[in-house]
Amino acid sequence: MLAAAPYSLPYQLRPTLAADVPRLDTPFAPQGDGALTAASLLFASKRLSPAAAVYLRAAAVRDEVPGQPTAWAVGNPVLGATAVKPVGAFVRVAGAFTLALPLGMGGGPSPAGTAARAIRAGVPARAGLDNCSARSF
After folding, report:
1. Whole-prediction pTM
2. Strand ranges (DSSP E) for 21-77?
């Protein structure tokens, strides 16, 4: 069995192992007019065996603009399972099954006003997480 890596992977990369993992990422995106957006991403997995795990991923966005009601949007939760197969001493192959539940984001192609504002504000906040998590500061 391979040893665990001595560092944390960026959010968009997935390890090829079955593990117990809790992870919460929350980038904050301040804006010049005093507004603040937070996009929280929760990932949790439970190891069932050395070769299998189940996982959950959920997201929420909160947008605060001075003088306006706070806007919220919740992403579609994702449930999944992964299987890992060692191939030789240094290589592992992983497969995943993922199911997104259509429960979030404010109601179809035309979400309500505050949810639509949160979704628009959450895109650059989330992009900041994806674009910066691989760098060391």
Report:
1. 0.72
2. 21-25, 28-30, 36-49, 52-64, 71-74
How confident is the model over 64-97, as pLDDT tens digits?
Answer: 989 988 888 888 899 999 999 988 888 888 888 9
Give the residue with greater pLDDT, 8 vs 74: 74
DSSP 135: S
Q: Please enumerate, as own/partner, the contacts of 100-103 that have beta carbons within 8 Å and a separation of 24 or more.
A: 100/76, 101/76, 101/77, 102/76, 103/74, 103/76, 103/77
Bridge partners of residue 109, in order along the sequence: none
Is residue 83 within 8 A of residue 94, CB to CB? The reply is yes
Q: How far apart are the C-alpha atoms of 137 and 105, rounded to whole Å?
A: 32
DSSP H or E segment with residue 98 = strand 92-100
Q: Can you give the pLDDT at residue 121?
A: 82
How far, CA to CA in Å, does 97 sit from each of 33, 49, 53, 60?
A: 42, 16, 11, 23
Cα 82 from chain centre = 16
Domain boundaries, the chain: 21-125
Q: Write out pLDDT tens, residues 11-21.
A: 455 567 788 98
